[in-house]
Amino acid sequence: MTAADSSATTIAVVLYPGLTALDLVGPLQVLTELERFAPRYRTVVVGAHPDPMATDLPLQLTADRTFAEVPHPEVLVVPGGRIGTLRAMRDPGVRAYVRTAAASADVVGSVCTGSLILGAVGLLRGRHATTNWFFAGVLKPLGATYHRQRWIEDGNVTMAAGVSAGIDWALHLVARLTDEATARRVQLALDYDPQPPFGGIDWAHIPPVPRAMRGAIGLLAPLIATKPERLTRAGA
């Protein structure tokens, strides 16, 4: 941060190649809106470099600051994705930043499979956690207990379930950082009043193909977690 921002409470949202755009943009919209009502907060997008990075959409995103420029944010937010996240779990730069930033942060958060990155550096051992339901089986090898909840908290670690849950979770985070009244003001400013045209997800009747895909990921979970776990034990 610049000298002018030195007194701000910094919320750092991590950008890395291949993440799910809404995992980042949804919470970013909420947290940036917070600045209108609580000016002491500053939300920045941080990445390994300032060059545009690919996402899961035909859209590239660029970090405001590098990891080195925001080493100790008060709040750390790690978005998720699919292949990009699995790569980030093993990426030395992402791992080092998440581990060191989390060590001094007051609140550590994740959206969707961003929780797998937290787990990959040892931050979820013994914790209750959530993630995208497809990847729920990967949490166990990383030492966490999965719960199918829209968001969950365990100490200073707070996590959202899949993708769109990041918006709900970010409003919860706003309330945690300030108060419910401020979170409601942010919600109203964003006109956030979700009314899915077909109602909520019928978890009891998930179609066979998605169920099979989730099962396959569950079977691969130990392999997905092996290298990140080995890196963590080695201190990398």
Task: Summarize the structure in short.
With 236 residues, this protein is α/β, with parallel strands linked by helices. The protein has helices spanning 21-37, 83-88, 92-104, 114-120, 136-139, 165-177, 180-189, 208-233, and strands spanning 9-14, 41-47, 53-54, 60-61, 65-66, 75-78, 107-111, 128-129, 145-146, 151-154, 157-160.
List the helices and strands and how they pair.
Blueprint: E1 9-14, H1 21-37, E2 41-47, E3 53-54, E4 60-61, E5 65-66, E6 75-78, H2 83-88, H3 92-104, E7 107-111, H4 114-120, E8 128-129, H5 136-139, E9 145-146, E10 151-154, E11 157-160, H6 165-177, H7 180-189, H8 208-233
Description:
- The protein contains eight helices and eleven strands.
- It is globular.
- The protein has one domain: Class I glutamine amidotransferase (GATase) domain (Rossmann fold).
- Helix content is 41%, strand content 17%.
- It is an alpha/beta fold.
- It starts with 8 loop residues before the first strand and ends with a helix.
- The strands form three sheets. A seven-stranded mixed beta sheet has the order 5-2-1-6-7-11-10, with helices on both faces. Strands 3-4 form a two-stranded antiparallel sheet. Strands 8-9 form a two-stranded parallel sheet.
- Pfam families: DJ-1_PfpI (PF01965).
- This is DJ-1/PfpI family protein.
- It comes from Geodermatophilus sabuli.
